[in-house]
Amino acid sequence: MKGLIYKDFSLFFRSIDKNLIIMALIVLILLFANTGDFAGLLATIMFSMVIGMQNVMSFAIDEQVSWKKYQLTMPVNPFLTVGGKYISVLLTIGLSIIVSVAFYVVSGIIYNAYDVKLLFISILASIIIPLIWTAFCLPLSYWFGFRKAQIVRLFLIVPVFCFISYFEDGPGFVSLKDTMASYFLTGLMISIALFGISYVVSVLGYLRKK
């Protein structure tokens, strides 16, 4: 199983598109230049979306090399086989948390403003977004293949942008940190539950092909 985890974690980095990195850097510069104290939070949200996308993109490489056909012949328990993919996702979430803290520090240095509540929300966002992203897309990949999951992946972008747009055009980001902390905690619990259910559904999809 360690080999499978290493393989999936390595694919996560190998599947990163250089053009995506360039676009992300441009967006990050704009965020840190224009969004003030909330730059770290918004940068975290964007980076967490990229983490979720990349976890799904690794399935594209698996399909290109017909990995599933080989995987089905492996003398490994299906729960462990699928579990390797889910553990690799958790490892990338660890990366998401580290980068979130780094964004918070950079934002604090630039604007000389440190708000622990913003850091708390940023860390929760860095966990919730990749968990929900993969909770929906990984089962679809196991049942129907990467292309179907890719379509759903695009739809998952919409609620995130609607969420940001609501606070940007409505009550403002200041109200976000004052009113949304408890909602983010609830969201964390829901995303963890969805991730667990997702694992079971993915195992069933894997077993269907054996």
Structural description of this entry:
The radius of gyration is 18 Å and the shape is elongated. The chain is built from 9 helices and no strands. The longest helix has 34 residues. The model has no long low-confidence stretch (mean pLDDT 77). The protein has 210 residues and is mainly α. It is 87% helix and 0% strand. The two termini are 18 Å apart.
Give me a quick take on this structure:
By secondary structure, the chain is mainly α.
Topology:
Blueprint: H1 2-14, H2 18-34, H3 39-64, H4 67-71, H5 78-111, H6 116-144, H7 146-169, H8 173-179, H9 181-208
Helix pairs in contact: 1-3, 1-5, 2-3, 3-5, 3-6, 3-7, 5-6, 5-9, 6-7, 6-9
Which residues form runs of ≥5 with pLDDT under 50? none
Distance between the amino and carboxyl termini:
18 Å
Q: State the helix count.
A: 9
Bulk shape: elongated
Q: Rounded to an integer, what's the Rg over CA atoms?
A: 18 Å
- Give the biggest beta sheet: none
Would you tell me the overall average pLDDT? 77
User: How big a fraction of the residues is strand?
Assistant: under 5%
The total count of strands amounts to 0
Judged by helices, strands and strand pairing, the structural class is mainly alpha
Helicity, as a percent range: over 70%
What's the quaternary structure here? single chain
